[in-house]
């Protein structure tokens, strides 16, 4: 039987295809030959965090649909500017240990340290309620209005990628949102009911730098 496993070339090709399908400039997907080194612990923490951001309800949660795996691929290839040089002098001294040799920021190393610091212990060994509280506090701090010159928390990028990974999945796009195979018909003055899902075919709300 032929081997059906993916090679690195397949992975790189799929990233470029994904970019073309959803309208992301191919240049935004960095085809680097330097494979991202991610520990099993970092993978577990990202998966847990993704599931906290979008937990399972009547529909699967973010980690259930593989949004965390999307984030890993996105980070490896620099989606949304995640492989750009770190913010130089604006970068707090305490965060410089998360900068790679090439000057880019290591988002997963930052997340690992941030979650452990928030939990005051091993984040993965804390009860679910405490994990939720740690992520909620991190989220609140990241979006606090601290002025235009304030260093932007890496959590903003990570959360954005989790949401993108989820709402471009089959469950996120067709069950959490409404999906129309061939959109474009004009329906004027449609009554809106509170709780009505948005359309997954509307990409105007997604921005990539």
Automatic annotation (TrEMBL):
InterPro entries, sorted: Gluconate_2DH_su3, TAT_signal
Highest taxon of the lineage: Bacteria
Listed name of the protein: Putative membrane protein
Organism of origin: Sphingomonas prati
């Amino acid at each position: 039987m032929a081997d059906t496993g993916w090679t690195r070339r397949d992975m790189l090709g799929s990233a470029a295809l994904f970019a073309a399908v959803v309208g992301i400039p191919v240049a935004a997907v960095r085809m680097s030959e330097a494979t991202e080194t991610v520990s099993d612990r970092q993978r577990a923490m990202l998966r847990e965090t993704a599931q906290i951001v979008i937990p399972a309800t009547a529909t699967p949660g973010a980690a259930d649909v593989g949004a965390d795996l999307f984030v890993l691929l996105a980070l490896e290839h620099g989606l949304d500017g995640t492989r750009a040089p770190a913010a130089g002098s604006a970068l707090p001294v305490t965060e410089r240990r998360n900068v790679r040799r090439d000057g880019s920021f290591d988002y997963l190393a930052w997340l690992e340290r941030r979650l452990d610091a928030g939990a005051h212990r091993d984040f993965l060994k804390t009860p679910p309620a405490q994990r939720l509280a740690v992520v909620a506090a991190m989220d609140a701090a990241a979006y606090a209005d601290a002025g235009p010159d304030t260093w932007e928390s890496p959590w903003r990028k990570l959360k954005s990628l989790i949401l993108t990974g989820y709402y471009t999945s089959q469950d996120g796009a067709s069950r959490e949102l409404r999906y129309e195979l061939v959109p474009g018909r004009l329906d004027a003055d449609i009554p809106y009911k509170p709780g009505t899902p948005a359309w997954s075919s509307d990409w105007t709300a997604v921005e990539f730098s």
